[in-house]
Write a structure and sequence with these properties.
The structure is a homodimer of 196-residue chains. With 196 residues, chain A is α+β, with helices and mostly antiparallel strands. Helices cover 53% and strands 20% of the residues of chain A. Chain A has 9 helices and 8 strands. Chain A has helices spanning 2-9, 17-25, 81-85, 106-115, 117-143, 146-156, 158-163, 166-173, 177-195, and strands at 29-32, 37-39, 48-53, 56-62, 65-72, 77-78, 92-95, 99-104. A 4-stranded antiparallel beta sheet of chain A has the order 1-8-3-6. Chain A has a 4-stranded antiparallel beta sheet with strand order 2-7-4-5. In chain A, a hairpin with a 2-residue loop joins β4 and β5. The longest helix of chain A has 27 residues, at 117-143. Chain A is globular and about 60 Å long. The termini of chain A are far apart. The interface between A and B is large, with 39 and 39 residues.
Chain lengths: 196, 196
């Protein structure tokens, strides 16, 4: 399990055996069954997640209806807003699949940063990247039609379309399940016409 | 000008005179006239901005039409995606008002971080906050109707409604200028009925 995390980090820094051992010693790897709810609306939490294997889903319940806003898969991390503002969570986090996660909090991060300051540099750089990407994704959502969003997803995260239920995907794209189904059929018909 | 930046940073750390001097010495403060374009689509750039005074706007030109996706006002920072992925920018950044900005890049940050490592800690913490907030704003956009988005903005950033042109605000809210105008009129009529 550790190897997947080290592989990811090695894109940014070459890690020493001592650094690897310090991370392994924290025993931050956890396995969760599909359907496990990691965070509920109204809860306080300081826990952050990095996905080694599996898929997390962030969703809200509004007027009794689930609204899925984000999915996190391999090598993606999730720091819920409640971990930085100290308030109750407004959303849920659940495992869409059986998942292996790195589970950490600010206290554990500080232990590592104090011992290995360059990990803090790494975290800052990763976080700056994630922030810029998150804003660009938001921009893309604002400037695209639902059909364009679906086609972009087909390009950028094709695996997601197979991994998550259609009603969650629809809500993630900002449309109804019926619209998504009609759109998929139309796109399939068009692409078979183009192929003929 | 420096004082505004130091005021903001002092919410997180007490700064020494030496630290303040090091930042002042970098002469990172710049004044720009309303309408100045700081970044164009297709350009490479490594420049990041922190708003001391004024307002920046991020927008795309799609099929000949401007699509505004974000505004940055006092004490907000903008690291365009091109500064982290090294590719050409897909969007524009312009000054909506006469603005005073902190203008920096990774190289200047590194000089400061090497001299004062706790600034790196500060930047990491700020960035984690911004990332969580950015994702929460994205969630809010996905789970709200245009009218709710407008009412939320009225609550969270009432100044923005006075500061930016209506067509930019409409696009920022994901609606047409006509829809925004109709919505504003309806809300005004409703609130005057409620007040009566």
């Amino acid at each position: 399990m550790e190897e997947k995390l080290f592989d990811y980090l090695s894109k940014y820094i070459e890690m020493t055996d001592e650094e690897k051992k310090a991370i392994t010693d924290l025993t931050i790897f956890r396995k969760y069954k599909k359907g496990t709810i990691l965070l509920k609306e109204g809860q306080y939490s300081d826990t952050c997640y990095f996905v080694i294997k599996g898929c997390l889903r962030c969703y809200y319940i509004i007027d009794g209806e689930e609204k899925t806003t984000a999915f996190y898969t391999e090598s993606e991390s999730l720091n819920p807003l409640c971990t930085v503002n100290g308030q109750r969570s407004e959303h849920f986090v659940a495992c869409v699949e059986d998942s292996i996660l790195v589970v950490s909090n600010a206290e554990m991060e500080e232990i590592i940063f104090r011992k290995f300051p360059r990990f803090e540099t790494l975290c800052r750089i990763l976080c700056e990247e994630l922030l810029a990407k998150s804003r660009a994704e938001f921009d893309e959502f604002k400037t695209s039609s639902p059909e364009q969003r679906y086609l972009n997803l087909l390009q950028s995260r094709p695996d997601l379309l197979q991994r998550v239920p259609q009603y969650q995907l629809a809500s993630f794209l900002g449309i109804t399940a019926q619209s998504l189904s009609r759109m998929r059929n139309r796109i399939m018909v068009e692409s078979s016409h183009n192929a003929a």
